[in-house]
């Protein structure tokens, strides 16, 4: 008998799956019992990811080969749309943290509108809790299935939600200018992530319409108590990891009021640091960690404020947040296994 939770990581040959392996392998209360892949099923993890050389891991298998009776909890790092068909058929004894976008939208009509097809697991959707621990910690503790917040969305929500909730910032306009490293697009080969097409330049994409807007609308609207339609423009920048969101908002009390509100809201949060006046966050300062840095700056007009937020898309934006959620679901200390300091430079 072991007092460790036996976990499976679905999609372990992808970027978020590999990051889950990195973190879970050193988690004091988790043991990695199964790891899955699709095209890479049958391979050893250290062959797919040589940085895991020497780590004792089971081989990558297909999902059909997993013996679920030997598993207590599952992290699901699969592409969206595939995920809902997989998660709905998982045995009910499993606790699940899903990293995809499939279970984040509460309204099925919104899901169909933004993803272009009906949801395949609506019954399950009803019981899923939105996985942003800083907001839904109590509900996450008793959830069986949690939908991790998306990487861009976590960056923007953590920057603005408390101030929106307390009406320290106005619900309109909110403009979010966000930049992501290339691992945000996953490991599967795509033309837009080729070195020659990402390096030495950068561009916006999804301008005017990106599926993450639906998730932002849902959570901003709940916090403000009135419909919020934020502008959101993502950019792909030539770096491996990290997201920086620069958010432009209106706040009658100016930057000091916004900073004070955020500092109070996050005073006891283990992973969110509100920076002192005059400091701005950098992806360099959160890389490889579950930390989020938030800076607040006064714009030239007295009622315009700039809130900047940085996190590592693969850690706080995905796998670290997933472990944070699973720690809550399992009754473990929330920071267990994910309190590593950032890697700098
Ligand atoms: N990358 C990021 O920063 C973030 C990603 N996410 C979300 O997390 C999920 C995983 O992302 P990421 O790790 O980047 O993706 P990757 O493309 O890097 O990895 C996808 C994984 O899923 C497996 N897979 C693909 N198709 C299937 C299938 N049909 N059946 C079973 N397994 C399959 C792949 O196996 P194989 O390698 O063998 O093909 C691989 O292990 C996505 O939903 C993404 O949107 C969320 C937040 C941040
Ligand atoms: C750089 C890049 O391509 N990013 C992806 C977001 C990745 C992601 O994490 O999507 P979810 O949060 O919805 O799972 C995109 O813009 O679609």
Task: Give a topology summary.
Elements: E1 5-10, H1 15-24, E2 30-36, H2 45-48, E3 60-61, E4 73-76, H3 82-87, E5 95-98, H4 108-115, H5 122-125, E6 129-131, H6 133-141, E7 145-148, H7 151-165, E8 174-180, H8 195-198, E9 203-204, H9 212-224, E10 231-236, E11 243-250, H10 254-265, E12 272-274, E13 292-298, E14 304-311, H11 315-330
Parallel strand pairs: 1-2, 1-4, 2-3, 4-5, 5-7, 6-7, 8-10, 12-13
Antiparallel strand pairs: 8-11, 9-10, 11-14, 13-14
This protein binds NADPH dihydro-nicotinamide-adenine-dinucleotide phosphate and N-acetyl-L-glutamyl 5-phosphate (X2W).
Word description of this protein:
This protein has 11 helices and 14 strands. Helices cover 29% and strands 21% of the residues. α3 (82-87) links the parallel β4 (73-76) and β5. The chain has 2 domains: 5-149 and 316-330, Rossmann fold, CATH 3.40.50.720; 152-313, Dihydrodipicolinate Reductase, domain 2 (2-Layer Sandwich), CATH 3.30.360.10. The protein is globular and about 60 Å long. A 7-stranded parallel sheet has the order 3-2-1-4-5-7-6. α6 (133-141) packs parallel to α11 (315-330), α7 (151-165) packs parallel to α9 and α7 crosses α10 (254-265). By secondary structure, the chain is an alpha/beta fold. The structure holds NADPH dihydro-nicotinamide-adenine-dinucleotide phosphate and N-acetyl-L-glutamyl 5-phosphate. The site of N-acetyl-L-glutamyl 5-phosphate has 10 residues, from β10. N-acetyl-L-glutamyl 5-phosphate binds at residues 100-101, 150-151, 180, 184-185, 212, 234, 236.
Task: Describe, in short, the structure shown.
The protein has 345 residues and is of the alpha/beta class.
């Amino acid at each position: 008998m072991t007092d460790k939770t036996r976990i499976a990581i679905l999609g372990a040959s992808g970027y978020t799956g590999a990051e889950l392996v990195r973190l879970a392998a050193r988690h004091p209360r988790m043991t990695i019992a199964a790891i899955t892949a699709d095209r890479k099923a049958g391979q050893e993890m250290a062959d797919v990811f040589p940085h895991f050389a020497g780590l004792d891991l089971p081989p990558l298998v297909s999902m059909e080969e997993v013996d679920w009776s030997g598993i207590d909890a599952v992290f699901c790092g699969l592409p969206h749309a595939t995920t809902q068909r997989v998660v709905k058929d998982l045995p009910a004894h499993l606790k699940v943290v899903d990293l995809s976008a499939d279970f984040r939208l509460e309204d099925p009509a919104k899901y169909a509108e933004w993803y272009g097809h009906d949801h395949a697991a609506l019954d399950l959707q009803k019981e899923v809790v939105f996985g942003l621990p800083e907001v839904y910690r109590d509900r996450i503790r008793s959830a069986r299935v949690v939908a991790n917040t998306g990487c861009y969305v976590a960056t923007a929500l953590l920057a603005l939600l408390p101030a929106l909730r307390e009406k320290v910032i106005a619900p309109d306009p909110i403009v979010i200018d966000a930049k992501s490293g290339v691992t945000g697009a996953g490991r599967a080969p795509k033309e837009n992530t080729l070195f020659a097409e990402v390096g030495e330049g950068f561009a916006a994409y999804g301008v005017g319409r990106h599926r993450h807007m639906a998730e932002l609308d849902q959570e901003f609207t709940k916090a403000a108590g009135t419909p919020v339609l934020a502008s959101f423009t993502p950019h792909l920048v030539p770096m491996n990891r990290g997201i920086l969101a620069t958010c432009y908002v209106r706040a009658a009390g100016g930057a000091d009021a916004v900073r004070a509100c955020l500092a109070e809201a996050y005073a006891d949060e283990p992973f969110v640091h509100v920076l002192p006046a005059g400091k701005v966050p950098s992806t360099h300062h959160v890389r490889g960690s579950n930390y989020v840095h938030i800076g607040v700056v006064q714009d030239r007009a007295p009622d315009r404020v700039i809130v900047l937020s940085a996190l590592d898309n693969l850690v706080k934006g995905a796998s670290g947040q997933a472990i944070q959620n699973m720690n809550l679901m399992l009754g473990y200390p929330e920071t267990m296994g994910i309190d590593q300091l950032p890697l700098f430079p």
